[in-house]
From TrEMBL:
Annotated Palmitoyltransferase DHHC domain residues: 126-245
Recorded superkingdom: Eukaryota
Membrane topology, as annotated: Multi-pass membrane protein
Main location: membrane
Protein known as: Palmitoyltransferase
PANTHER family associated with the record: PALMITOYLTRANSFERASE ZDHHC16
Taxonomic lineage from the root: Eukaryota, Metazoa, Chordata, Craniata, Vertebrata
Domain notes: The DHHC domain is required for palmitoyltransferase activity.
Length: 342
């Protein structure tokens, strides 16, 4: 048994090491493109000083924004459900000791009444993660690679070696957009020298770098264009990649547009209300990832927690904060809380 555990740990370590290979490939390509553009093209090939300075200035702005967003996409941890969605000790004992599946489902239903949970499993049951031992908030899914539940999980991206979800979805979109801008600028400024090297200019190290730089920039731009366009459509519809393939299920059944609350509000959920910060890789997404407004507001009325207030949050110290004045008595189970932007 000890050998089996060591073998599993060894395989996991190997998996973690190999998972960084795509990131290493992207990093090497970008570093090479930096050398090829800055040194081989701008410093060794260009003769016009004004053109050289302008190219270097704009290039470094694109390079910094690309690197910043890529870094944030990689190293921003995927947000996981807070403690409120974990079973208490007594509830966990009651759930594990119960052998009847129907009774277990009813236990989860009773616990979920106190939480802002409106989506369901395909069977209609409360979504529960046996591995993480948490009730899944709306749009939350378990990632088998990260081995954790991720809030508003979109997908696991090998190119950033991270889950793309609520905490870093804005960074991922900006990474795609600045990657496209980086490729477009390189292709546009290299094109005339690509033609010259292809015809008149003599062979040399710069010729290889400039020709190859043009092909690589165009190749990456085409692939990124389709991916970025797809995610723009997802943002406009307020869907994740997982929800695009499998519609979220509510009490009234599956609904692909269950979280679609208008294009403007959908954009604000991802980028925030301050448009000056939309294109800067700082976290401005609305909410805390545990609750999202629904298109069909009547479906919220079954949960007394949100009957009159559609926002909820756990405070930093783990306590609940009320913003509706006096709370009603516990026997009626009307507890109103408000959700502040992180």
């Amino acid at each position: 048994q000890a050998q089996g555990c060591r073998l599993v740990c060894g395989l996991r370590c190997c998996q973690r090491v190999f998972s960084w290979i795509p990131v290493l490939i992207i990093t090497c390509v970008v570093l090479w493109s930096y050398y090829a553009y800055v040194f081989e093209l701008c410093l060794f090939t260009l003769t016009n000083t004004l053109e050289k300075v302008a190219y270097l200035l704009v290039f470094h702005v694109c390079f910094v924004m690309f690197s910043w967003t890529y870094w944030k996409s990689i190293f921003t941890p995927p947000a996981s459900p807070c403690k409120k969605f974990q079973l208490s000790y007594s509830d966990k004992q009651r759930y594990e000791m119960e052998e009847r599946p129907d009774a277990q489902k009813q236990i989860l239903v009773e616990i979920a009444k106190k939480l802002p949970i409106f989506s369901r499993a395909q069977s209609g049951a409360i979504r529960f993660c046996d591995r993480c031992q948490v009730l899944k908030p709306d749009r939350c899914h378990h990632c088998s690679v990260c081995e954790t539940c991720v809030l508003k999980m979109d997908h696991h991206c090998p190119w950033v070696n991270n889950c793309v979800g609520f905490a870093n979805y804005k960074f991922f979109l900006l990474f795609l957009s600045y990657s496209m801008l980086y490729c477009v600028f390189i292709a546009a400024t290299v094109f005339q020298y690509f033609l010259k090297f292809w015809g008149d200019l003599p062979n040399g190290p710069a010729k290889f770098h400039v020709l190859f730089l043009m092909f690589v920039a165009l190749m990456f731009f085409v692939s990124l264009m389709f991916l970025f366009g797809y995610h723009c459509w997802l943002v406009a519809k307020n869907r994740s990649t997982l929800e695009a393939f499998s519609a979220p299920v509510f009490i009234n059944g599956p609904d692909r547009n269950g979280f679609n609350v208008s294009t403007r509000r959908n954009l604000q959920q991802v980028f925030g209300e301050d448009r000056r910060l939309w294109f800067i890789p700082v976290f401005t997404s609305q909410g805390n990832g545990h609750y999202f407004p629904l298109k069909n507001r009547s479906s919220e009325s079954h949960n007394s927690l949100l009957a009159n207030e559609d926002m909820w949050e756990e405070s930093d110290d783990g306590s609940e904060e009320g913003s509706l004045g006096e709370s009603l008595s516990f026997c009626h189970m009307h507890i109103y809380t408000s959700m502040h932007s992180l």
